[in-house]
Design goal:
Elements (H helix, E strand, L loop, with lengths): L28 H10 L8 H15 L3 H12 L6 H18 L2 H13 L8 H14 L3 H13 L5 H13 L3 H17 L6 H13 L3 H14 L3 H12 L9 H11 L5 H14 L2 H13 L9 H21 L4 H6 L4 H12 L3 H14 L5 H14 L3 H8 L8 H15 L1
Helix pairs in contact: 2-3, 2-4, 3-4, 4-5, 5-6, 6-7, 6-8, 7-8, 8-9, 9-10, 10-11, 11-12, 11-22, 12-13, 13-14, 13-22, 14-15, 14-16, 15-16, 18-19, 18-20, 19-20, 20-21, 20-22, 21-22
Length: 423
Amino acid sequence: MMRICRGIGFFVFTFLAAALVPAMRDASPLASAQAQEQKGGGNTVRPEIGKPIQAAVELLKHRRGKEALAKIKEAEAFGEKTPYETYMIERIRGQAAAIAGEALAAARAFEATAASSAAPSGERLQFLAAAAGQYYVGKDYARAAELGARYFRDGGSDRAVRTVYVQALYLSNDFARAASEISKDVQAVEAAGKSPAEDQLQILANAYLKQRDNAGYRGALEKLVAYYPKKDYWLTVVFDVAGKAGFSERLALDLARLKLATGSMRTATEYVEAAQLSLQTGYPAEAKKIIDQGYAAGLLGTGAEADRHKRLQDLAARNLAEDKKTLGQDDAQVTAAKDGTALFNSGLNYVLNGNGSKGLEMMEQGLRKGGFKRADDGRLQLGYAYHVAGQNQKAIQVFKTVQGANGAASLARLWVLHLGRAA
């Protein structure tokens, strides 16, 4: 099981289930029965049943649901009823129970209304949707999902019902179907050139996580950071990549660079370790920048480790001063070497010191010379160098060429998402 950031906990979509409850019309529902009778439609309600139903309708206009339910019981107490009378009783019972907060009773009443032979064909879907919504409110998620599926099979298209349906799938632990249905919705939204809803992507990520579908989970995380690049999402996706099997420790500095760019550094220790790695690799300009960011974030220079942080800051400053004195002294030597590694590294140092044009040229030349044990690591660093130099479109192009299973390709993919959003 992969770890998941607390920022991507499951968030229930905000919706009003009451919106799925058919609204009471101003006129009495018995008026339609009388009209039908005058037209020869045969829909009639006997006075002894119609009187308490009408009283219930009047009570519902003032949202007095429990009193309306009592009137419905009066209507129900009479003997054998016609299908239309039963339809009218269940229809008003559903309204009254929903208003009274008796969701499951409302759901059963609306379901019966939708199934009634007396129900107008144009209203069946409306009551089926209301039943699904009330089953959801009553936490009978399996039944809500079942009726939601039936609603769409019968031709329904209301997005509010779709919301209830996919949530009910998830909450009834049918994670595979939930992920499948949400994926369809996400693809449709993207095909229309729009951004999927944030909560939709959250539940998609969790549906995959519940199935231990790592590939699906990572894909959903990537969509979250692509469309909603919040710190919590970046924390999750960056640390997920670092935790993948096979991720190479050689990429620790490359990982730190991405964390810095996406605001995913969380602790003073992370800043210190990143700065130390940069110093050890021979890039004091970068180390100073990391330390400065740590101080600006309020994580360095405070607490019990404040003196240590100051010593590291002073070390980076001394190394940077020395590096600037010697920068370029070995350019001829590294350019003449058959192996391009030293030339590449010198070029990156130029970029980090603010000379992007010269540094990038040296890095490109070094890659062409070859001699790298891991060319994809080099391309990852080249993409980063183009970013530092302010050429993000070129950086994206380079990042897209990075391959391999040691983590370099995963980091490159995240850089593409980050820079693509910024562009």
